[in-house]
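Quick start: what a row looks like.
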Amino acid sequence: MSLRKPLEIPVYKHVAGRKLLDLMVEADATLSTFDKLIDVLTELKVDIYSATIVRRGDLRSFEAFIDITESPLTLEELKKRVQSIPGVKRIEVAEEKLPGLAVRSFSYPLVIEEQPVVLIEQPIWAGFIQEFKRTYGSGALSILYHVGYQGGVVQARRWKPFIKDDPRRGIEALLLIAKAMGWGDIQLDEFSGKRIAVKVFDCPECAFLRGVAKTPQNQMLRGFLSGLFSEILGWEVTFSEERCIAKGDQYCLFIHEVKEPNKRQPS
C-alpha cells in the first residue's frame, strides 16, 4: 500500500468555535502579488486553512478558506487592506452561513480538465449502495457491474488516442487517475500473457462493510476495471474478485486469467 497523504478538496470547511470566511481575490498573473497577499494575511493574524490559485487568461484567481477569529480588523478593514495590494483587481468575501462553516462560493461548476464532476461523500455513497442492494437484491449486483463496465469503457475511449503502442503504461496512467478520483489505492500487480491482477486498497464500494461480509462486495469497480481493460486491450477482460476488504482481507484483489483472447464486439 502506498503512503497515505489525504488531499482535502476545498468545497467547505467547518471548525466549531471559529469565524471562517470564503475569500476570493482576483489579481494580475504575477505570482509575487500572491506572495504579498500571504504576507498581509499573516500580518493581520488571518489563518489560511486551504487555498487554490487558478490562472484565467491574464489574471489569477485566489480562493481560500480563512479564519479571522484572531484578527484585530473588522471584515471591511480587512477587505480594504487586501484591496490596497498592488496588482489586486477585485476581492469578494462570503460570510459564514452557519457558525464555523465556510463554503466555496465563487467557483462553479466543479470541473477537472474542463469535465464537470459531482462529488459524493462516502457516507452518502454508502447509503446509495446499501439501499440499492436492499431494494433490488441480486439484480442490483448485475446492474452495478454493467454501470461500472460502461464507465470504464467511456474513460478508456477518452484516453485511448494518447496510449498508442504501450497499453501497460496507458492502463497504469488511467488507474492512477482513478486513484486520484477516489476509487481507492489501485495498483496493477501483474500484467502478463497469462494473468492480469489488480490490487485495490480502501475501495469505497465496500469500505463501509469492512470485515463483516462473507463474500466479495465490489461490483461497480469490478465492472469499471473490466470495461477499461477490455477497451484498451481490444479483447474481453472479465475480472473476478478473489479478495475483498469486506471479507476482512487487507485489500481487494481482481484477477483475470488470460486464455484465448476473445475480440470484443463493438459497444
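That is the whole record. The longest helix spans residues 138-163. The chain has two domains: 12-116, 122-257.
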